[in-house]
Amino acid sequence: QHRAFGGGSFSTAISLIMSEMIPEPLVMGIGFVAASGSFAVLLGAIVYTCLQAFYVRILPVIAMALGAILMFDQETAINTFLLSTDASQCSSTSMLLKTVGALCMTYAIGTYYVSKLACQMTQAYYGFAMSCVGALLVKSLWSALSAHDQYAGIALVGGMGCLSVMKIVSPKIQKKFGVAKQPYTGF
Fold it and tell me: Which of 128, 135, 141, 146 has the fewest CB atoms within 10 Å, i.e. the most exposed one?
């Protein structure tokens, strides 16, 4: 202990001197940058979790239910989705609805099995493929969609694309910082 510093330890005295030498705006700026970085990481984690829950858990269940309705309950499907009894007179309507139902079920089952894979790269490529198919569908229907449906289509396609980008970037960031090793199957 040094008597010159009022009986405190030497390291306490040095820290007092150093704190007087660092300008307060610099300390506040560093604190703001650190808080902003923490907020960005937290926001990214929340967005990732929400997108993952929607596209991997909720949407496949909805697609499976929609597929079952389209394949096995034609009358309800025609009355609900086509809003016209003229469509029931068309011979190809039943086949078309069953085909769309089968595709919905295929999407749901494919998403379930891809989510069970440990490789995030495979999941990302699957997501990109699904978002590309969705984008083509929205583009082909664009003029027939209302403004609200156009925005909803863009949001669905964009959300899947965003989740896919996160799945590609996340393992690279984790590897760079040595946080966790992600299973990698050869991509």
Answer: 146
Q: Name the amino acid, one letter, at 9.
A: S
Rg (CA), the chain: 27
Any idea which residue has 């009894």 for tokens?
A: 85
Question: Tokens for 104?
Answer: 């919905």
Length of the chain: 187
The residue with tokens 């499976």 is 64
- With the C-alpha atoms ordered 7, 12, 18, 22, is the resulting torsion angle positive or negative? negative
CA atoms within 13 A on the CB side of 42: 6
Mean pLDDT for the stretch of residues 96-117: 88
2: alpha, beta or left? (left if phi > 0; alpha if psi -120 to 50): beta
Are 157 and 135 spatial neighbours (Cβ–Cβ below 8 Å)?
yes
Give pLDDT, residue 95: 80
What is the average pLDDT across 19-34? 80
Which pLDDT does position 1 carry in this prediction? 46
What is the value of pTM for the model shown?
Answer: 0.68
Cα separation of 113 and 103, whole Å? Answer: 15
Q: What is the mean pLDDT of the chain?
A: 82
